[in-house]
Write a structure and sequence with these properties.
By secondary structure, this protein is of the alpha+beta class. It has nine helices and 19 strands.
Length: 452
């Protein structure tokens, strides 16, 4: 079968030349400063359901964004047309927007001394030369493995294979210009178990920079099927208060909540329950959160952020105490602080505990839970980041004496994020990576379970 070779439309040198042209034109118009980001990419996504191709999506995108400053007045414009005339029109549009924009003393480029002029290679680009026919076959293998796991797998929401290759170049009038290509590939499967009124679904997926690091499609399909089968016979619980163990993929949401509450925009608007939390004990004393932008092939790895600011390894939480926020240049200025190199979000956050041992796998975490709720799915958006109130629909498994007894559904778990953070009893070493975050399962001392 023919192999589809991946080629970008432009080289990095060509993108840098376009960026330089944009900055030069911005200067001739009278801009005080300017920045641009140029990106392009292509991808393939196929969805197979019951062995038949349901969707095939191919994308080829390109974009130029221009930010232009006249003093403290900022204008932005973008285009997908790379022709010289379109570039000049886009810069002119940004200039005209800036002319009529109110001044903002916090606007402006990141300081030159903070920019990463010599970015390291983090091994982020691994093309997957996959033609549509082969992608379909991989998806079929994942789905068929789910069906073959057990006769009770009666249907699926499909199996998906995705391939994405992208590249970009950033440049600012502070003599910064850099960019690189990167890739992201994945396989997923979502089986349905049971029949009639007794049907349950679950899913599993894996995403990596390099396709060779993905699990076999059969393994993904089988594991997804086992998860769906385990949910058959779900019951409701009576309302109670008990310990709750967040399964590792779900525990990532705890990191998500912390990031959102300590991001610059929420902090300077005072729309976060963690406003002024720097230097304060928020988590249990054994909890650590580490950020490492330099993990080779990491999904959250970057040598510089969306403003060209140098990233850095750092302890965001040490011994339960907040050591830093997630700030861009603008939000840092609004707060009277210094950017943390997080324009665009966090970079490879790892949630760990100083009391986690080598033997603290998932089974050990169930033993620590003892009798309580193993949480495997959350639904809804019931989190108030201003107050910290937390209430979400959920499903999972009831556990007694460290042993799973039966699946549960149609319940609500509630608490406050303040209590959840401070009542983390243990963090497992059953770690999983989901996007830019990594954690093991997380045991919360107690939450309220609302049921029947």
């Amino acid at each position: 079968m023919a192999v589809q070779r991946h080629v970008f439309l432009h080289t990095q040198v060509e993108l840098k030349n376009i960026a330089s042209d944009i900055l030069r034109y911005a200067k001739t118009l009278g801009a005080t400063n300017a920045a641009t980001e140029i990106s392009e990419g292509d991808g393939l996504s196929v969805l197979v359901r019951r062995g038949e191709v349901e969707t095939i999506e191919q994308n080829r995108d390109k974009m130029i964004g221009v930010s232009l400053l006249i003093g403290k007045k900022l204008g932005n414009a973008s285009t997908s047309d790379f022709s010289p005339a379109a570039l000049r029109d886009t810069v002119a549009a940004a200039y005209n927007i800036a002319r009529f924009t109110a001044e903002d003393n916090c606007s402006g480029l990141a300081e030159a001394e903070l920019l990463e002029m010599h970015p390291m290679d983090l091994d982020l680009f691994h093309p997957w030369d996959l033609c549509t026919e082969d992608a379909v076959e991989i998806a079929r293998r994942a789905e068929q493995a789910a069906f073959d796991t057990d006769p009770r797998i009666c249907n699926t929401e499909g199996a998906n294979v995705s391939v994405q290759h992208s590249q970009f170049v950033m440049a600012t009038s502070h003599s910064f210009i850099a960019g690189y290509p990167y890739s992201r590939h994945g396989i997923s499967c979502a089986p349905i178990a049971g029949s009639g009124q007794q049907m349950q679904r679950d899913d599993w997926y894996m995403m990596r920079r390099c396709a060779a690091e993905l699990d076999m499609p059969e393994a993904i399909g089988r594991y997804a099927a086992k998860r769906a089968l385990a949910r058959l016979g779900s019951r409701r619980l009576n309302t109670r208060r008990c310990p709750v163990l967040f399964e590792a993929p779900l525990a990532v949401s705890i990191l998500d909540a912390f990031v959102q509450a300590t991001s610059g925009g929420a902090l300077y608007r005072k729309m976060s329950f963690l406003t002024d939390s720097y230097g304060k004990s928020i988590f249990a004393p054994h909890v650590q959160i580490h950020e490492d932008p330099y993990i080779p092939r990491g999904l959250g790895s970057v040598p510089f952020d969306r403003e060209g600011v140098r990233t850095a390894r750092r302890e965001v939480v040490r011994d339960g105490v907040v050591q830093g926020y997630f700030l861009s240049t603008y939000s840092a200025r609004k707060l009277g602080l210094k950017t943390t190199g997080n324009a665009g979000g966090p970079h490879n956050l790892l949630l760990t505990s100083t009391i986690t041992g080598e033997d603290d796998d998932f089974q050990a975490m169930l033993q620590k839970l003892g009798t309580g709720l193993l949480l495997t799915e959350l639904m809804g958006q019931g989190v108030n980041f201003v107050t910290g109130d937390y209430s979400r629909g959920a499903s999972g498994f009831w556990v007694e004496n460290g042993q799973i007894q039966y699946p549960v559904e149609e319940i609500t778990v509630s608490s406050t994020l303040q209590q959840m953070f401070s009542q983390i009893v243990a963090i497992g070493n059953d770690r999983i990576v989901r996007g830019t975050k990594e954690t093991g399962s997380v045991l919360i001392e107690h939450m309220t379970i609302a049921g029947q």
